[in-house]
Amino acid sequence: MQNVKIIFILILGTFFLSGCVKNVDLRKQAEEEKAPEQKDMSSMQDAVDLPVETAEASSIQAGEPVKILFVGDMMFDRHIREAVAKYGSGKYNYVLEPMKEKLSEYDLVVGNLEGPITSNKSTSVNTKMGESKNFVFTFDPIVAKVLAENNIKLVNLGNNHILNQGEKGVEQTKKYLDETGVEYFDGSQSSTLGTENSVKLGFVSYNYSVPDSAETAIEEIKSVKEQSDVVVVCPHWGTEYKTGDPGNSVRALAYRFIDAGADAVIGTHPHVIQASEEYQGKKIYYSLGNFVFDQYFQPETMEGLGVEITINPDRSMEYGELKFEMTKKGQTIFKVEP
Q1: CA distance linking residue 309 with residue 70, whole number of Å
Q2: What are the b/e assignments for 15-31, b being 16+ CB within 10 Å?
Q3: pTM score of the predicted model
Q4: Which long-range contacts (CB under 8 A, 24 or more apart) does 96-99 make?
Q5: In angstroms, what CA-CA distances link 8 with 200, 253, 312?
Q6: CB-CB neighbours of 65 under 10 Å
Q7: Among candidates 314, 19, 312, 308, which has minimal Cα distance to 162?
Q8: CATH number for the segment(s) 2-334
Q9: What is the spatial distance between Cα 112 and Cα 234, in angstroms, rounded to a whole number?
Q10: Integer Cα distance of 293 and 285 in angstroms
Q11: Gap between the Cα atoms of 268 and 60, Å rounded
Q12: How many Å apart are CA 213 and CA 289, to the nearest integer?
């Protein structure tokens, strides 16, 4: 096995503060399917140019396939925080303990970090659904270490909750992730795995809550494609709690991403698993659902999908799928099919 360096080229990152939803019946919202597939955000921050960064990663042998696992939304506040204290003796590794061995099998695990990691006190603990504070997250600093110890070495920060603690919360998030060797992206970036016959991987984030960001993402896909062998777009999009078909506007945007050069599109945000399909020979997963979350009000929000991508030395790609289940005691486990 040879040592591997992952070189991340961070091109552009834009953060927007997520809105606080008040007095909303989420299940009714899903039934009526009136939630817009693309939202405008009133609170906006200036774009931030991020520097080039390098990081050490796990080893893979040159010429061997590269195995990557993509998981869905991860939220470590609210009932998850309470469950860690009650059932996990205060140790956050409790949450992913059933998954640890499986996660270690991959060269890279990628997930959506649905909120900031800060030293701030939680305001969502003991709140009820529909209350404004119920949607404002902050994760304990130890979460960064837990991610690293469970091989979740790359997280998407391009979502509608990352600014729940403001810009200082974003700064703290990056600080804690940096300290544990967990990389992150909110604009786009490319990486190189291996030293011979290397596979250059590009990751592009699209955030529905950023106005006009689709065009920015498309331009980034084109740019990253010139530097990468494989480009994966990780969009945060769609209608929450809407299962099955993602809707025409989301599908059309996925097609545009692939037409721009994406080799795969793997989405998050709806908190439920949605349809998948192929377009122009490329795979699209519209939503992976949850991976770590406390949405126990319906079966669909208590399960998630993991997507395995194996990139062979000839750059061909093979796919596999895993099913997860979120228990009411705050753990993520493998879903047992009937």
Answers
A1: 8
A2: bbbbeeeeeeebeebbe
A3: 0.84
A4: 96/146, 96/150, 96/292, 96/331, 96/332, 97/331, 98/331, 98/332, 98/333, 98/334, 99/150, 99/324, 99/332, 99/333, 99/334
A5: 10, 26, 21
A6: 17
A7: 19
A8: 3.60.21.10
A9: 9
A10: 19
A11: 28
A12: 22
Question: Which structure tokens are listed for 99?
Answer: 């998954």
Residue identified by tokens 């122009």 is: 280
- CA atoms of 317 and 8, how far apart (whole Å): 22
Question: Strand pairing partners for 232?
Answer: 203, 264
Question: What is the residue type of 99?
Answer: M
Query: What does the angle CA 36 – CA 38 – CA 40 come to, to the nearest 5 degrees?
Result: 100
Per-residue pLDDT of the chain in tens (338 residues, 90 and over written 9) = 333 334 333 333 333 333 333 333 444 444 444 444 444 333 323 322 333 232 333 344 557 899 999 999 999 999 999 999 999 999 999 999 999 999 999 999 999 999 999 999 999 999 998 899 999 999 999 999 999 999 999 999 999 999 999 999 999 999 999 999 999 999 877 777 654 458 899 999 999 988 888 999 999 999 999 989 999 999 999 999 999 999 999 999 999 999 999 999 999 999 999 999 999 999 999 999 999 999 999 999 999 999 999 999 989 999 999 999 999 999 999 987 76
Which tokens sit at 138? 């902050």
CB-neighbour burial class of residue 328 (10 A; exposed 0-12, middle 13-18, buried 19+): exposed
Structure tokens at 324: 């997860």
